[in-house]
Amino acid sequence: MLHMKHQPTNPSVVKQYIDSFNWGDILHNLTFIVIDVALLSIFFLIVKFLGQLLINHFFNRYVRKQKHRNPKREKTLDSISTNTFNYILEFFWLYSILSVIGIPVGSLLAGAGLISLALGLGAQGLANDIITGFFILFEHQLDVGDFVILDTITGTVEEIGLRSTQIRGVDDSLNFVPNRYITNICNMSKDRLKAEINIRIYPNSPIQQIIDIMKDVNAKNVATTDGIIDDPQLLGTVDIGNGTLIVKEWIPCKDTAKFAVQFKFLQLYLEAITAAGIELPNNDLVTPIH
Fold this sequence. Notes:
This protein is an alpha+beta fold.
């Protein structure tokens, strides 16, 4: 009886493909890639640390040479210098990492025609952001710490970068606004502002007596209040519509002192007028400050 010999089965295509790899070389190369990436990252962290020290050194020298210091302007220049340095450093770090991994970034982009596409789309927006940001800084339109209104966003400027400006909203939200979208700026912090104070009155109120009381309060408190830079301007009685009359006053003050001056003198006026026995209209929006 003839016995049939079993023919060895052919290994699968996948197994043949896997066995064709030299796993020893692959592991060896992967180890060196990981080490190179780690060393590159450490190197760029050191460069970032040293670069930040140099920026701080030269920036402090620049500040010491200034006769008239502007803390907000100093923070703005420091912020933009640091951001620019970090952007450049991160670009070279990423390029170096991809090169170590073996990805020919330049060749791929050029071969695929992505450079032209980037310049036509993404880079165009980036260029607009940078150019707009440059003019914002050059013309002193914004500084870190300014209280501003940008279209529908109201808040304090926290950082000005090459691409975007960060605004901390009055509700404590952090808004990132691309520089190219900053078209209308209402800057409430440009050195000099007027604290506006409105005292609501009745049509039959003793207006002159109220004005005299406000002048007396000013005489006692203006000279001792920080931030006031000029004499108050009592504009008199103003009709704001709907039968509502007010006694309006402006107090010129530093931008950083506007709200403190406004709150303080509004309270002083209301207390003095009430103490004189003069009745004022009820206003739910006016609350005492303790």
